[in-house]
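Project standup — Tuesday

K.O.: blocked on the structure for the chain from last sprint. Re-posting the sequence here as requested.
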Amino acid sequence: MRDAHMWLADYDPRWPAMFAAEKDRLLAAVGSHVETIEHIGSTSVPGLAAKPVIDIIIGVDSLRAADTHCLTPIQSLGYEYIQAFEKSMPRRRYFRKSDETGLRTHQIHLWEREDSEYERHMLFRDYLRAHPHEAADYERVKRDLMGKHNSVGDYTDAKSAFIAPCQQRAYAWKRRLRA
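H.V.: unblocked you, prediction finished:
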């Protein structure tokens, strides 16, 4: 059976506005307890086809404080907190939200800002935004893999063959920018 979230949509220029609206809601709910709320993932890269789910990363100073002050308010905005995912990623808090038909529309990855995973997600986004040819290559890979895999997990694992060397180029790019 094919996963309901296994399809790519052409870039939708409404995605940034959808993120901005959700960011405003999140800021109203948890703004005093977070450092950053950013749009990540493929929907954050202009022109890039994506699974049409708005990926949001929230950066906090302390995961412990976020557990106390953010979990319930985020859930009150219609997000489901998936604590079970902490078995494989204990330093991340993950939330997802679906529309009335059950189709996922948003997901939140909450990390401490000093966590290497927070940095990795932000750098990959920034690199793809700054290098449209890499974003186009990534889209070709995603379209090819989408036709070959029946689950989000398999698709995600298969993308790593492109993402890992691309991230290495992103780290080298960041070092050059700082030099």
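K.O.: great, moving the ticket to review. The mean pLDDT is 94. The domain at 15-178 is CATH 3.30.460.10 (Beta Polymerase; domain 2).
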